[in-house]
Design a protein that fits this description.
6 helices
Length: 213
């Protein structure tokens, strides 16, 4: 019986050892599962971080490409604006130069017409002072016709001047000279200085007619 009791005690001790070994095995399995779960969670978290970083990198790369394209477009627009500004400045400069040239030509033309008028007036006044009878007839003519008379009077005096020059100038150039003088006379008729040049003659129309000789 004592041998049986000792075997039973050994059996119980082995059973306790087995239970302890099972508990340690279960604890190890649980620890392994917890570790694997933690590793899986860490891997998943790290993968999520990697995916997020990759997405941010791709987004930044696309943004950089868009900015580069925008920069290229803005650079081309700036170059185009520079070229347009240069062309506009050149056009405005040409317009200013053209306007100045037109003003200069207009002033020169007016000065030329004024000089022609002064020359013609000198000839007219010279012809008037040389013939007193013609002056009186001219005065009667201006008194009789009020507004358009001065044109006819000038034509008569110009014709008189041309006749005098025709008597003095002989040769093949006399016809060209007369054509040139007629052209200058017609241009002078359209000058704004026409009536200013003949204020004295216009004022003379209000004077009483001279007595006939």
């Amino acid at each position: 019986a004592s041998e049986y009791e000792s075997l039973f005690a050994e059996l119980m001790a082995a059973r306790d050892s087995l239970e302890q070994a099972k508990r340690r095995l279960w604890d190890a399995k649980a620890a392994k599962e917890r570790y694997e779960l933690a590793v899986t969670r860490a891997i998943a978290l790290r993968q999520a971080e990697v995916d997020a970083a990759k997405a941010r990198y791709e987004l930044e790369l696309r943004t950089l490409d868009n900015l580069k394209a925008t920069y290229d477009v803005l650079l081309k627009e700036i170059e185009l604006a520079k070229l347009q500004a240069i062309a506009e400045a050149a056009r405005q400069r040409e317009e200013v130069i053209k306007a100045k040239e037109e003003d200069r030509l207009s002033i020169a033309e007016e000065q030329r017409r004024i000089a022609i008028w002064r020359w013609l007036l000198f000839l007219l006044y010279s012809s008037f002072s040389a013939d007193t009878t013609y002056n009186k007839e001219h005065h009667l003519f201006l008194y009789q016709y009020k507004y358009w008379d001065i044109y006819l009077a000038l034509i008569c005096n110009f014709y008189k001047v041309l006749l005098s020059y025709q008597q003095v100038c002989r040769g093949p150039n006399i016809c060209l000279y007369q054509i040139f003088l007629y052209k200058e006379i017609l241009l002078a008729f359209h000058s704004p200085y026409f009536f200013d040049a003949f204020q004295t003659n216009i004022a003379a129309r209000n004077m009483p007619p001279p007595k006939a000789m």
